[in-house]
Amino acid sequence: MVTTALEQAVVAAERLVVDELGPGARLPGETELAQRFGVSRLTVREALKVLAGRGLLDLTRGRRPTVREPDGSVLSGHFALAVRRDPSALLELCEIRRSLEALAAGKAAARPGRAAVAALETAVDRMAAAVALDEPERERRFHEADATFHETLALAGGSRMLSFVLSGFEDALHRSFAASYRGHVARGGGFDEVVAAHRAILDAVRDRDVAGAERAMRAHLRQVERDLRAAIEAAT
């Protein structure tokens, strides 16, 4: 199999970034990398762009490339594009969330740190406070607190891989939060019940009730699915 100079440089650069350098480290200059990889500086430049596209490097003009902490940002763009093209994909996302976020809730309940519980409490309190506001401020504040709750829960269980996967849904989740909010309004739902659903998850996490946290999350996401269906029907 014939390997192009660019493919050779990408493999060598990825090995350097993943196996030898850690997040935050700066790569050597292009001249040094070209000598090390046995390719031209232009090929090095293109190889680094490939790694940046994979979320492995930060490229800033005038500065040497920096190794990034792995996250789900590359996946996030793909999921966001999918739901932009077909809003009904939000229902498929909700189905995936039922499994992954129930797992995240259970892991958080198994080892609830004080800081995580406090952050979840603050998010729920902010959701409750937002209910009393007028639109559009209510939707904005409610949405922010809702997103913070789910992001905090994903991190609370201490599973880097689970947090990584859930972070890949970030952009699509923000669309899901907005759509479910509209759907909840469309079907005449009260926002106190949404706050109560989040508080039930919080209470189970605080009480170290793993099964209860998983049940509460699945119940909440069934509610979200109903809201999403209402939003999609209202838009068609």
UniProtKB/TrEMBL annotation:
<dbReference type="Pfam" id="PF07729">
    <property type="entry name" value="FCD"/>
</dbReference>
<dbReference type="InterPro" id="IPR000524">
    <property type="entry name" value="Tscrpt_reg_HTH_GntR"/>
</dbReference>
<feature type="domain" description="HTH gntR-type">
    <location>
        <begin position="2"/>
        <end position="70"/>
    </location>
</feature>
<keyword id="KW-0805">Transcription regulation</keyword>
<keyword id="KW-0238">DNA-binding</keyword>
<dbReference type="InterPro" id="IPR008920">
    <property type="entry name" value="TF_FadR/GntR_C"/>
</dbReference>
<dbReference type="InterPro" id="IPR011711">
    <property type="entry name" value="GntR_C"/>
</dbReference>
<keyword id="KW-0804">Transcription</keyword>
<protein>
    <submittedName>
        <fullName>FadR family transcriptional regulator</fullName>
    </submittedName>
</protein>
<dbReference type="InterPro" id="IPR036388">
    <property type="entry name" value="WH-like_DNA-bd_sf"/>
</dbReference>
<dbReference type="Pfam" id="PF00392">
    <property type="entry name" value="GntR"/>
</dbReference>
<dbReference type="GO" id="GO:0003700">
    <property type="term" value="F:DNA-binding transcription factor activity"/>
</dbReference>
<dbReference type="GO" id="GO:0003677">
    <property type="term" value="F:DNA binding"/>
</dbReference>
<dbReference type="InterPro" id="IPR036390">
    <property type="entry name" value="WH_DNA-bd_sf"/>
</dbReference>
